[in-house]
TrEMBL record:
Occurrences of domain Terpene synthase N-terminal (ranges): 64-231
Residue ranges of domain Terpene synthase metal-binding in the record: 289-491
PANTHER family named in the record: ALPHA-HUMULENE_(-)-(E)-BETA-CARYOPHYLLENE SYNTHASE, OS04G0344100 PROTEIN-RELATED
Cofactor: Mg(2+)
Residues in the signal sequence: none
This protein's UniProt keywords: Lyase, Magnesium, Metal-binding
Gene Ontology MF terms: magnesium ion binding; terpene synthase activity
Primary gene name: LOC123064867
Keyword Magnesium assigned: yes
GO BP annotations, alphabetical order: diterpenoid biosynthetic process; terpene biosynthetic process
Official protein name in the record: Terpene synthase
Protein's organism: Triticum aestivum (Wheat)
Length: 501
């Protein structure tokens, strides 16, 4: 929930940029999960008995965002034009600096800075060329920080690089010979990119973590914050746009900062933020239409949270419609999930599943009144995807429909398990259903459907039973269930992690 506030520009918390433009950047104080504000307004459920039907139903509190993004007023068109003009100048200036970089340490620091500040997508070719130079060079250094940084950047960018280089830094006691905090932090980050069999990194993680924790109280505040963030979540696992925003604060305080890169990063973030607010306006208007049409008060009002999840997959401007499609589809997944889990009777849920499988307006006649509007709006929304994609690419939505049908079938299977008090005999039996019901295949398909360069081959791949996609689904299912087991058990839902699996 804290992360959502990065979408909210706050007056008085702006970065001052060159010339006459002052640009807002999200900098609200973090709200902790114990905040009274969030306790009052978050989408936590209140379970109550329905007097008419005897069903146990769940009411979710309103979102704390309300209609903020419908009322949000961006900078003037003149200001935005100046921002983009200035950004183009800086992009070329930094590009020139990248072309002129010829020393390995200089290249490493330049690339890591550009990537962490969220600028990498502007310089994909330049970064690839620089990393090729680093990879092919006969570079051997006794500086643990630089060796770790080299390894981190190369492996993160899919180069085949060996971890053997770290053995020379080991001591006889099972530790490492360089104990300066910067080197330890770089090694800690690199060690989290280990693969099976790299024992040196198993030791490195525990060793560096212990020493970094011990050094925290003696570090200056900006670097202490960077160390704390890495100990909580290694950089490569972070949401890209949040990493860019967080690192902006750290980089601003660095004595060795590159002023052109810093100004570019601020402009880039602000331009992205303006665009995100426009996307959120779109999905908020769409969501409000759902609420007016469906009158389903039990549904979780989490459209901004949903958008944030999707934004984590890619924040590039070119993937704007991909984010919008995936957000709307994920919101429908939440609605259908809430209908199955907390509101509808089994009979009504099965009728909805059958209607979705038919995917036809005439199927609305088989549904109870409270489901009709939401079903028709589902069909209408998918039709709007086809219209937006146009005659050439509307075929993509067929793949998305099929993925959505499989998801709802998995919901139906889980509902049968719940009603029959059935616990799967093996973990694999459970995963046959639960790895589908987690919805990752639908979200992945939705993301690809909205991308300009998606091909038939891409959609066939994402719709197949690939090992990578299955692993992603299982990982997501495990992490989801570990966080929600108590809530699901209270609601009578069969948990994934049980004593019998």
């Amino acid at each position: 929930m804290d992360c959502l506030y990065f979408f909210l520009p706050t007056e008085g918390q702006e970065y001052k940029l060159a010339r006459v433009v002052s640009l807002y950047i999200a900098a609200l104080p973090y709200f902790k999960y114990t905040s009274p504000v969030l306790q009052r307004n978050s989408s936590m459920a209140a379970i109550q008995e329905d007097c008419s039907g005897g069903e146990t139903r769940t009411t979710f509190h309103p979102t704390l965002w309300g209609d903020y993004f419908l009322k949000y007023k961006p900078q003037s068109s003149a200001q935005q034009a100046h921002m983009r003009e200035r950004m183009e100048i800086l992009l070329e200036q930094v590009r020139t600096e990248m072309k002129e970089a010829n020393e390995i340490p200089q290249i490493l620091e330049l690339v890591i800075t550009i990537e962490r500040l969220g600028l990498g997508y502007h310089y994909e070719n330049e970064i690839a060329q620089l990393l090729d130079v680093v990879f092919k060079s006969d570079y051997d250094d006794n500086n643990l920080h630089l060796v770790s940084l080299r390894f981190y950047l190369l492996r993160k960018n899919r180069y085949d690089v060996s971890s053997d280089v770290f053995h020379k830094f080991e001591d006889k006691q099972g530790g490492f010979v360089q104990l300066d905090t910067n080197s330890l932090l770089s090694l800690y980050n690199a060690a989290h990119l280990s693969i099976k069999g790299e024992d040196v990194f198993d030791m490195a993680v525990s060793f560096t973590r212990r020493h970094l924790l011990g050094a925290l109280e003696n570090l200056e505040s900006a670097f202490a914050g960077e160390v704390s963030s890495s100990l909580l979540t290694p950089p490569f696992r972070r949401v890209g746009i949040l990493e860019a925003r967080n690192y902006l604060s750290c980089y601003t305080n660095k004595v060795t900062r590159n002023e052109a890169i810093l100004e570019l990063a601020k402009l880039n973030f602000n331009i992205l933020q303006l665009h995100f607010c426009e996307e959120l306006k779109d999905v908020t208007m769409w969501w409000n239409k759902i609420k007016m049409k469906s009158r389903l008060s039990f549904v979780r009002d989490r459209i901004v949270e949903t958008y944030f999840w999707i934004n984590g997959t890619s924040y590039n401007l070119e993937y704007s419609y991909s984010r919008i499609i995936a957000t709307k589809v994920t919101a429908f997944m939440t609605i259908i999930d809430d209908i199955f889990d907390t509101y509808s009777s089994t009979a009504d849920s099965m009728q909805l599943a059958e209607a979705i499988n038919r995917w036809d307006e005439d199927a609305v006649n088989m549904l109870p009144e409270y489901m009709k509007d939401i079903y028709l709006y589902l069909l209408e929304t998918f039709h709007s995807f086809e219209d937006h994609l146009g005659p050439k690419n509307s075929y993509r939505v067929v793949y998305l429909k099929e993925a959505f049908k499989k998801l709802v079938q998995a919901y139906s299977d889980e509902l049968k398990w719940r009603d029959e008090n059935y616990v799967p005999k093996t973990l694999n039996e459970h995963l046959q259903v639960s790895s589908v019901s987690i919805g990752t295949s639908v979200v992945a398909c939705a993301i690809f459907v909205g991308m300009d360069d998606t091909t038939v081959e891409t959609l066939n791949w994402v719709s197949s039973d690939q090992k990578l996609l299955k692993s992603f689904a299982i990982y997501t299912r495990f992490t989801n269930d570990m966080a929600s087991t108590k809530r699901e058990q209270a609601g009578g839902i069969v948990p994934l992690l049980s004593n019998r699996t």
